[in-house]
Design goal:
- The protein is α+β, with helices and mostly antiparallel strands.
- The chain has two domains: about 100 residues, Alpha-Beta Plaits; about 130 residues, 2-Layer Sandwich (Alpha-Beta Plaits).
- Helices cover about 20% and strands about 30% of the residues.
- Strands 1, 2, 3, 4, 5, 6, 7, 8, 9 and 10 form a ten-stranded mixed beta sheet that branches.
- The chain is globular.
- The relative contact order is 0.19.
Length: about 260
Amino acid sequence: MARYQLILAYEGTDFAGFQRQRKARTVQAVVETALKEMDWQEESILFAGRTDAGVHATGQVIVFSLDWQHDETSLLNALNARLPDDVRAQYVSQCEAEFHPRYDASRRTYLYTIYHTPQPQPLRERYAWRIWPPLDGKLLNEAAQPFMGRHDFRSFGRAMKPGATTIREVFISRWTEYENGWRYEVSANAFLYHMVRRLVFLQVKFAKSSLTMPDLIKGFSERIIIKPGLAPSHGLVLSKVEYQGYKQGHVDRTEN
């Protein structure tokens, strides 16, 4: 019996989120169904983070144990042969028994894409939020800066468990120009429920002059909820999960 770490990509449109739910199609459920066909015996896989309905991923990390008698490439191919077309395993390797994809994560990175066209573009609608007229990237980046650093983000999201800390440290918060629009990159040690979609929504409001900078930072200084709302889920991608002490996609511990 070996322990495996697997990097998973999925197109979230037809999923009710990652985590298993009753009477709903989820990424966890289809992955576990595929593993059961390979004589997987555990009750549940472990995973780096929950994603909402409609959210995509290129770098979700899961962990499971399996009695597999062949090499890792064969395991990857066998799993992909059993998965639906909107979920694919990208890389698999053996990992240490104590490795946990959620609790050992040191950094998570999300990407959110906005595009600007006067009419919807069918090939982009599943993966980006269309906004017209165009937003000013300088204003978006001005709004992104206050989120940098260590803060109490309780006004911008919800803890997964009652009473859990809402303090998070953001390492990257920036917008870059991308295919007639803008892409937001945000990296933090962890995120609250709906935090990224909330941050994007507020930055867009600021760029539209519907929110002032003093209003925006009241979320930190006064811990109040300002302008309720979320950016649409389909523009969001869980891009990468990193582990200090582990090489990404490998079992080896790094030297630092």
